[in-house]
Structures are given as structure tokens and as C-alpha cells.
Amino acid sequence: MIVVSAPSPSSDTGTLSAYERVNGTWERVLGPTPATLGELGVGEPEDDVFRTPEGTFPLGQAFGRKPNPGTRMPYFQATDEDWWDEDVDSPTYNTHVHAAEIDSEDAENLYDSGPMYDYAVVIDHNPQRVPGRSAGIFLHVTDGDPTWGCVAVDRDQMKSVLQWLDPSANPQITIGVGAGAPS
């Protein structure tokens, strides 16, 4: 379980800690480390609103511009043909698309977006792909600025998170105001 805690709903910064259950108790294994959040803080997800979704969500596909750093999560190395479709009118809304070009009004190139996607993992906050509930929310490397709704940490912490994640443990992330250790 990864826990991201913001001090207030409008805060664009917070902390990230990672926990694992050992003998029935949650123990912190990473963090706390500084995290950057959406420019508008945390709350209800909405397309084109730079807010980090609040709640508990599964962590899914991992990816990066760099080779797999040793994660056990499904991982692909992004090229200039990897996109995240954020077009609410597209049949591939809120999915990864691998293509030389994409017929979408709003798609983010996962390679050309720069070092923030050197390492990343999908925060699966909208698995039903409901248009309007936002798309393309990731845990990724920070560039020092508030995000468009993602959670970002420094490069070494992101690599550590990826190396620690294990899909067999059903990894999840909880994002909220004053979020604490899992109970």
C-alpha cells in the first residue's frame, strides 16, 4: 500500500510512504518522501482539471523511457510511438496506445513528455474509462512543478517504488488529505 498525504485539499505538495503487511501489521518500507500533486490539490477527478484524484486505487501498468529498473510489475519501455489517449470522444480514452500516430484530439506522448516519464506506473483511478472522470493519472518522476493530476516523486524514490512493487500483492495507492498509515 502506498499512501499519499496532502496537508489540505488545495495543496500541490504532500508526502508519499509505502507500507507492506508483515505478520499482520503494516510496516513502512519507504518514505516519507516529498511528493508533488496536482496544481489544484486533491479531490474529485475531472478531465482538464489539474487535480489529483482522492481515494484508493489499484496500481497497474508500469512504463518508462528508461529500461525496466527491476520491477515485477508489467513494464514497457516507452518509445515515440507510445501514447496515453485522453480524448473523451475517442474509443481508446484512458488507455495506452502504441502507434506511429494516433487519431486523437488529446493524446500525450509518453516518450516526448520528457524525464518525468523515465519511470512511471498507472494509478488506475478510472478503470471503467468514464469520460469526464480524468485520464492519464500516473505515479512518476517529478520535474519540480505541480502536476496535471498525477503524483510525482524524485527519480531515486520512483525507482525504489518500482523495484518494491509486486503485482502478486495487489498494490494500491491511497491519496487523501491527512491520509495515514493503513490499518
From TrEMBL:
<keyword id="KW-0961">Cell wall biogenesis/degradation</keyword>
<feature type="active site" description="Nucleophile">
    <location>
        <position position="150"/>
    </location>
</feature>
<comment type="pathway">
    <text>Cell wall biogenesis; peptidoglycan biosynthesis.</text>
</comment>
<dbReference type="GO" id="GO:0009252">
    <property type="term" value="P:peptidoglycan biosynthetic process"/>
</dbReference>
<protein>
    <submittedName>
        <fullName>L,D-transpeptidase family protein</fullName>
    </submittedName>
</protein>
<dbReference type="GO" id="GO:0071555">
    <property type="term" value="P:cell wall organization"/>
</dbReference>
<dbReference type="Pfam" id="PF03734">
    <property type="entry name" value="YkuD"/>
</dbReference>
<keyword id="KW-0573">Peptidoglycan synthesis</keyword>
<feature type="active site" description="Proton donor/acceptor">
    <location>
        <position position="140"/>
    </location>
</feature>
<dbReference type="GO" id="GO:0008360">
    <property type="term" value="P:regulation of cell shape"/>
</dbReference>
<dbReference type="GO" id="GO:0016740">
    <property type="term" value="F:transferase activity"/>
</dbReference>
<keyword id="KW-0133">Cell shape</keyword>
<dbReference type="InterPro" id="IPR005490">
    <property type="entry name" value="LD_TPept_cat_dom"/>
</dbReference>
<feature type="domain" description="L,D-TPase catalytic">
    <location>
        <begin position="5"/>
        <end position="176"/>
    </location>
</feature>
